[in-house]
Amino acid sequence: MSAHFRNIALIGKYQSPDVVESVLEIAVFLRERGVSVSIEQGTASSIGEAGGYPVATYDEIGAQADLAVVVGGDGTMLNTARRLAEHAVPLAGVNLGRLGFLTDIARKDALQKLGEILDGRYSEESRFMLDAEVVRNGQRVFHTLALNDVVVNKGELGRMIEFELSIDGEFVYTQRSDGMIVSTPTGSTAYALSANGPILHPSVGGIAIVPLCPHALTARPVTLPDSCRVEIALLPPHDARVHFDGQTRFDARAGDCVRLTRAPLSVRFLHPQGYSYFAMLREKLHWSASPRHN
Known about the structure:
By secondary structure, the chain is of the alpha/beta class. The chain contains seven helices and 18 strands. The strands form three sheets. It has a six-stranded parallel sheet with strand order 3-2-1-4-5-6, sandwiched between helices. Helix 4 (74-84) links the parallel strand 4 (67-72) and strand 5. The longest helix is centred in the first third of the chain and has 13 residues, at 20-32. The chain is globular. The N and C termini lie far apart (45 Å).
């Protein structure tokens, strides 16, 4: 057993019976390796009696765990990353979802790859987050973190919204569109990609702003330094809906300002030995295979 990982927490897709078998199998494997195992409270509720393993809240996991293994899809990883960011607990993901950009360990390889991580054969990667707040009449009315993206859109309205974009206090433009995506490199392969945004390598210190169906052909995605402060001010009479990682939302009013900066916190991901970002992109995005050599 690696001396670095004495206490490991297991976190599964919330209220999903599909994860029960996988979580318990991993728990047995880790215990056999001499690791102390706990199961996150919501995950344990799907298992029932948690299989005899200790149950822990996210705060307890943050205080006690040396590693959190997330079993599910990217949505489960995004939620876990935000909940544990302040504790700097490293995360490893076992994919039970569809794409698995963040949960990169295949289910069939889970025990082998986790064993390699326990043996110290892994690489660590840090991903930055966005600090997001909504300001109304000079007062903060909402605040959260986002690992993937923050999306300002028209919500259920059948028309476009209008807003002003400012960078570091400088007015950039007024835009009429369905909204705007502000994405980290992590989120550049998510919603922003479907809106023709750029793919940003995780090591790039950049923030992508990607218009959603703009009413101007010249409104193009722009990549900014991650030191920038992005502000999106809603112009009357348009209300809007703001989504954070596609999981948390806030109903903004005309006149509100969505203010985004790089968060001081980051997320630590552990990848098994041999992990390749470009190999992951080839697989998930169905890029062509390597050319044949005759």
